[in-house]
Amino acid sequence: MVRSVTEIPHAWSTVEVDVSGLVALRSSVRTEYEKNQGGSLTYLPFVIKAVVEALKEFPTMNATWGGDKIILKNRVNLGLAVAAPEGLIVPVIHNADQFSIAGLAAGANDLAERARTKKLTLDDVQGGTFTLNNTGALGSYVSGPIINYPQAGILTTETIQKRAMVIDDAIAIRSMMNLCLSFDHRINDGAEASGFLTAVKNKLQAFGPGTSIY
Predict the structure, then answer these.
(1) pTM
(2) Which residue has the higher pLDDT, 37 or 206?
């Protein structure tokens, strides 16, 4: 972390996302998924799906800084920050863009369980190209995460809260969530970072009952 803070010029951006459709989708498929798959269905795999799709659209977010040039990564290997007994650890879903939401749920559950039981392999924690941290699971509302060196960025998902929002000049109660992005300003400027965040936001807001998780 010290190397990241001292070598990477961090910049930050935050957006709020209406995840009411996502909440309804998860509610509609959760029981069947958990009965058939045997694992929990959290909001995390839905966010992972949106993030990896956005990374394909904004490849400089899936990159590293190579001294005097940007090095794009061919694969989308998403790191998931997990609170393990020995401290924070970041296991990786390799080729995360190749999985369905259900597949991502299974992969995330497996990595989290093996992280907590100290059964991760070396391959499980190597090769990450971007990191996601679900700080909202602990009630966080806004974060300023430290980039997982030498990646181009890290995204946190914050707690989901019901808020009164103005929609078509009327007040409506919606489920809202903040996304907080830290990015390497040598690789991306505000335009790319905002574009990436907006892409993730739009994908999350497109989820709703009827969206397939398989």
Answers:
(1) 0.95
(2) 206
